[in-house]
Amino acid sequence: MFARYAPLAALLLACAPQARPQPVMPPAPADSAPVVAASEAPAVVADKVEAKAPTPIADAFRADAERILKAGMEGGNAFAMLRRLTDHVGHRAAGSPGYTAAVAWATEHMKAVGLENVRTDGTQVKVWNRGQIAAEVLAPARHQLDVLALGNSPGTGPRGVTGDIVVVKDFEALDALGEAGVKGKIVLFNHAMPAYSGELGSGYGEASRYRTRGPARAAKLGASAVLVRSATARSLATPHTGVTLFEDKGKTAPAAAISLEGAELLSRLAEDGPVKLRLVLTASTGKTVAAPNVIGELRGREKPEEIVLLGAHLDSWDLGQGAHDDGAGCAIMLEAVGILKRMGLSPRRTIRVVLFSNEERGLDGSVQYGKDHAAELARHVGAIESDGGGFAPWGFSYEGKPEDPAFVRLSDFVTLFAPLGATRTMVGWSGSDLKSLEPGGVPRFAHVTDGATYFDIHHTAADTLDKVNPEHVQRNAAMVALFAWIVAELPVALGAPI
Ligand SMILES: [Zn+2]
């Protein structure tokens, strides 16, 4: 299932930027992290952008932009929709009853905002049950550890695994130990994720590699179980789950995330001598069940066959409420269309909202969409995913080269997002669900928000609605509404040669 994505492991299942992208224009200011109110839009950044060459697209859409942003920022339904999803559906791992309820939520709200052709597809997923987990240091002293099973992990059996631990900071250290140093041991990957930086982003891409690939690599060397330091820079004894990937028919090992505090404790103890640990983990894989993508459209008035795709993922982890990841993205995409509909705007091209299934544990929804729509991928003129949380609007990331026409055009009209404080652009990633659009050469973007605190709660039980600012999520919807409108309305396709 993962074979087609194997070389792209760093892009898998991210829910966030995987690489530290390089800002292109304008550079993110050092103080870009703070949440800004609408009245505190970063005028300095906007001024820098406006000092650039002519802006024909911005000029052509200036009046539309003022109207759309005004309508979007005056208020709307983004937070109310998110509240229905988080509080009345709750978490929604693909294949769970929660996911089925989320499909009903999506269908109802797509119709409510005015989307047509609302439908589900044939995506199927393999169920994974988290089960119970406990981890305890037995020697040199007893310590209970804060751990969470990693998605797709097998279980240990009810008796658990008991063994000595071996601590490595990276893959080089693991390989240096080799089978002789790893076989029969419980391996801890203690790779620290750096603090968030406005310039460089989160460092999640590097840190999460140990979660996605570490257990398989340690299992290959004979590890009896694997612990991975949680992919976060800050912790209050909070483990962060996430997917781990095993090769088809390859060796597996029970795998769990451990809190930063636990990882540090084990590392200190290991410096002083042998450390014996017991891990009990009863996760299991179940049957394959239906877990569809939900799709709806605002049909284009002139070129309905050309598509602007707005994406987010409907599934979440089976913890907390998936409020930022990715409930906010779902609400933002629905409300973006709702804003345009309330204004009576009918786009030249079709705007299609796709709420993808099982981004977190297998990208099954993305793969299904790529298969089902293979014949029309080349008619997707642009795609944007919101999967970085519903924090204050920041700007756009583009998956491609700075000289690509789609990015050049974005750099022109991004000035229009100044009232939202969202005029930054960068070349880096787009969205993991958009990967299946790549064969069509579709210009792919990420809707980017202020990520300073995202990884404090990402993939934890604390990703709940109280962490979401209603004004931010509404402003993000206004941002996506304007982006979608421009891309759907441009006289030529966004990525057409200049
Ligand atoms: Zn996500």
Would you spell out the secondary-structure blueprint of this structure?
Elements: E1 22-25, H1 43-50, H2 56-73, H3 78-88, H4 97-113, E2 116-120, E3 124-129, E4 133-139, E5 143-145, E6 147-149, E7 161-168, H5 171-182, E8 186-189, H6 204-220, E9 225-229, E10 255-258, H7 260-272, E11 276-281, E12 284-290, E13 294-298, E14 303-313, H8 323-342, E15 349-356, H9 364-372, E16 380-385, E17 393-398, H10 405-413, E18 424-427, E19 444-449, H11 454-457, H12 470-489
The structure holds zinc ion.
Residues 15, 313, 325-326, 359, 387 line the site of zinc ion.
What does the model show?
The N terminus is likely disordered. Helices cover 32% and strands 22% of the residues. It is elongated, with a radius of gyration of 23 Å. The protein contains twelve helices and 19 strands. The chain has 498 residues and is of the alpha/beta class. α3 runs antiparallel to α8, α4 runs parallel beside α8 and α5 packs parallel to α6. The strands form three sheets. Strands 1-18-17-19-16-14-15-13-2 form a nine-stranded mixed beta sheet, sandwiched between helices. Bound molecules: zinc ion (ZN). Zinc ion binds next to α8.
